[in-house]
């Protein structure tokens, strides 16, 4: 009896000692898994985002070819079209199918469509018609939206207030709507933020050359043929930036892109908005002059500017504030910033702060944008501060 008791006590004590000795190993293991978590690959998110942007871009091209683009003027006097609403519906539907718990910050909302049923039906006709040729890919996106009512509800699912925590997608269904209407540059934009950091970005640019080596050309409108045009840019944080042709068929493999090495800043090509109301052409010209740049600026609409400098077709993108009160929207920059960063660039505001996507639907803590290859960013920023008189 006492022998048995002693044996049991001994077993208990040795188990306890063993358990205690394992604690440091377990702690190390927990720390290790903690370290592994942030290096998530986001490959699936990128794949869905590429397909969703591809499908939405197909819709926008079809809308461009119709004479009735259903343009409305929003409360800030900016335009929105059948293309913007339709692209937003298709992208949100794909995201909800694949990532139902994620939040969405999208540019458009559907209140006008609840009263304007003619416009609603025009959008519905395009949304119903738009399918990826690749049936498996179409299935991956959840297939068609089942009814017009559901389409209107889906458009309204992009009202998240954004912020610093969790997974938040941000959508600009057509960035550069004015460019789109003119037959100039526009971009279908989608990015994933995790805890306020951009992890994945995709830009679909139907009117940019497929050829990554084509020199940047001003493209404010007209003369459009689809020949040789259409590019999809993408990036995952820490994994580089890619481009591939934007077609109606299966996705091609992505090719790595990189910014051009600028050895002489005076030879840099810089691009800016078409609309003088969106960024100050005067200040931008003064900065270019300070840097000794004699090439004329290349004016183009939308985040096609970020994609173009990321693949070295241009070098600098300056967006200098015209108003003290305007706050840049996160959907106008998120995808472009991760693509430029991953291609070897650096993007800050005019004070040199990184763009902070954790502040809600707008970049409330930033003013303007200075995007340049890493090596020359400091030099460009110094000229920006000089011209604007921003304190270092
Ligand atoms: N006042 C002001 N200041 C700065 N930015 C503004 C302003 N007003 C609008 N917007 C946003 O500009 C987006 C268009 O992008 P760009 O300026 O690059 O293109 S453009 O050349 O001016 O068309 C445009 O995006 P879309 O509405 O998606 O086209 C707007 O979100
Ligand atoms: Mg708009
Ligand atoms: Mg926009
Ligand atoms: Mg837009």
From TrEMBL:
Enzyme class: hydrolase
A Gene Ontology molecular function term of the record: metal ion binding
Signal as UniProt keyword: no
Listed GO biological process terms: inositol phosphate metabolic process; phosphatidylinositol phosphate biosynthetic process; sulfate assimilation; tRNA decay
Pfam families assigned: Inositol_P
EC identifiers of the protein: 3.1.3.7
Key words of the record: Hydrolase, Magnesium, Metal-binding
Tree of life domain: Eukaryota
InterPro entries: DPNP, Inositol_monoP_metal-BS, Inositol_monoP_superfamily, Inositol_monophosphatase-like, Inositol_monophosphatase_CS
Membrane-crossing residue ranges in chain numbering: none
Residues given in the record as Mg(2+) binding sites: 107, 172, 174-175, 332
Catalytic activity: adenosine 3',5'-bisphosphate + H2O = AMP + phosphate; 3'-phosphoadenylyl sulfate + H2O = adenosine 5'-phosphosulfate + phosphate; adenosine 2',5'-bisphosphate + H2O = AMP + phosphate
Cofactor(s), names only, from the UniProt record: Mg(2+)
Database matches in Gene3D superfamilies: 3.40.190.80, Fructose-1,6-Bisphosphatase, subunit A, domain 1
Family of the protein in this entry: Belongs to the inositol monophosphatase superfamily.
Function summary: Converts adenosine 3'-phosphate 5'-phosphosulfate (PAPS) to adenosine 5'-phosphosulfate (APS) and 3'(2')-phosphoadenosine 5'-phosphate (PAP) to AMP.
Protein name: 3'(2'),5'-bisphosphate nucleotidase
Record organism: Trichodelitschia bisporula
């Amino acid at each position: 009896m006492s022998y048995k008791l002693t044996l049991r006590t001994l077993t208990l004590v040795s188990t306890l000692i063993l358990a205690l000795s394992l604690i440091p190993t377990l702690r190390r293991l927990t720390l290790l898994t903690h370290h592994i978590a942030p290096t998530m690959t986001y490959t699936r998110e990128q794949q869905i985002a590429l397909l969703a942007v591809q499908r939405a871009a197909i819709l926008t091209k079809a809308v461009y070819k119709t004479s009735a683009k259903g343009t409305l003027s929003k409360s800030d006097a900016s335009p929105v079209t059948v293309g913007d609403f339709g692209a937003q519906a298709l992208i949100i539907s794909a995201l909800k199918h694949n990532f139902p718990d994620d939040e969405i910050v999208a540019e458009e909302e559907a209140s006008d469509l609840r009263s304007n049923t003619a416009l609603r039906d025009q959008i519905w006709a395009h949304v119903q018609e738009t399918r990826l040729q690749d049936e498996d890919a179409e299935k991956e996106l959840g297939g068609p939206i089942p009814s017009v009512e559901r389409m209107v509800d889906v458009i309204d699912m992009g009202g998240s207030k954004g912020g610093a925590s969790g997974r938040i997608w941000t959508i600009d269904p057509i960035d550069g709507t004015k460019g789109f209407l003119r037959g100039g540059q526009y971009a279908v934009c989608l990015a994933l933020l995790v805890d306020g950091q951009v992890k994945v970005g995709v830009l679909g640019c139907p009117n940019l050359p497929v050829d990554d080596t084509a020199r940047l050309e001003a493209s404010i409108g007209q003369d459009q043929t689809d020949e040789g045009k259409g590019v999809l840019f993408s990036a995952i944080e820490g994994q580089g930036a890619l481009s591939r042709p934007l077609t109606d068929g299966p996705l091609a493999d992505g090719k790595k892109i990189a910014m051009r090495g600028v050895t002489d800043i005076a030879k840099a090509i810089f691009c800016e908005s078409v609309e003088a109301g969106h960024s100050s052409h005067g200040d931008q010209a003064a900065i270019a002059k300070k840097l000794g740049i004699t090439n004329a600026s290349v004016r183009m609409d939308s985040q096609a500017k970020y994609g173009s400098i990321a693949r070295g077709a241009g070098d600098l993108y300056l967006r200098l504030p015209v108003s003290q009160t305007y706050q840049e929207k996160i959907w106008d920059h998120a995808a472009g910033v991760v693509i430029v960063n991953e291609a070897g660039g650096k993007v800050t505001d005019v004070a040199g702060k990184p763009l902070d996507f954790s502040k809600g639907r707008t970049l409330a803590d930033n003013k303007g944008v200075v995007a340049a290859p890493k090596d020359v960013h400091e030099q460009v920023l110094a000229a920006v501060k000089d011209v604007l008189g921003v304190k270092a």
